[in-house]
Design a protein that fits this description.
It is built from 11 helices and 5 strands. The longest helix is centred in the C-terminal third of the chain and has 20 residues. It is globular, with a radius of gyration of 18 Å.
Length: 224
């Protein structure tokens, strides 16, 4: 089995669509609600590692040529790799300013009253904020602007992905940028024949550009 990992808003759906066009591959998009749910619980300490491992074992039982794209699995990459020792991981990246803009403008991240699941303000304290992972005090977190919270979240996910993937042998993961993605590189990594497939289905939002001040903040404050 293979997994597409990212912060989200990186072109995951476009890559899933392309891989599904290959005669030897099947790829799904966030098809495992139980894993999504409990990955969040695990990241905030609501369940322990043994419970999370049991959930992964019960839900991850697919052939080698079936993939899953799930940005919500970033807390459990290492555990997934251990549960499925033959699994592979595709780390899909996008220009970070575009990712921030997509979250901040298009998805209205961290807006109270939002209907976007994990982005509801009250869920924030149970899943991704600095208090839960020991990076910030509660007052420091509350004092952050919505833009700063968005950047903190994305920076945190990127760091956690890098930490976990760097623990794996080089042959088990590949890092790709959606802006210059070469599908033949993906096919080679997954040990399937090259086919004439283009990344033609682009599901990318075009949010307003960040201001020069916001771009400067990213440059100075995100550990990229």
């Amino acid at each position: 089995m293979f997994f597409i990992m990212s912060t989200g808003r990186c072109g995951n759906h476009s890559l899933v669509h392309a891989l599904n066009s290959h005669s030897q591959l099947t790829c799904k998009q966030e098809s495992m609600p139980e894993i999504i749910k409990y990955s969040r619980c695990y990241s905030s300490g609501l369940i322990d590692g043994r419970t999370m491992q049991k959930i992964l074992c019960e839900n991850l039982d697919y052939p080698w040529n079936v993939g899953e794209s799930c940005a919500q699995m970033w807390p459990v990459v290492s555990m997934t790799a251990a549960v499925l020792p033959d699994s592979k991981f595709i780390w899909l990246k996008r220009n970070i300013a575009d990712v921030v803009a997509s979250y901040y403008h298009t998805r209205k991240a961290w807006t109270t009253g939002s209907k976007l699941g994990i982005y509801k303000e009250h869920v924030l304290y149970k899943y991704v904020n600095g208090v839960e992972v020991g990076d910030l005090t509660r007052s420091e977190w509350v004092a952050k602007s919505r833009f700063e919270k968005t950047c903190w979240f994305l920076n945190h996910v990127l760091q956690r992905l890098e930490e976990q993937l760097s623990e794996l042998p080089q042959e088990r993961f590949i890092t790709l940028n959606i802006e210059d993605l070469d599908l033949n590189q993906v096919f080679k990594f997954l040990n399937v024949a090259s086919e004439d497939i283009n990344l033609g289905h682009i599901d990318a939002s075009n949010p307003p550009k960040l201001t020069d001040k916001e771009l400067k903040w990213i440059e100075n404050n995100m550990n990229l």
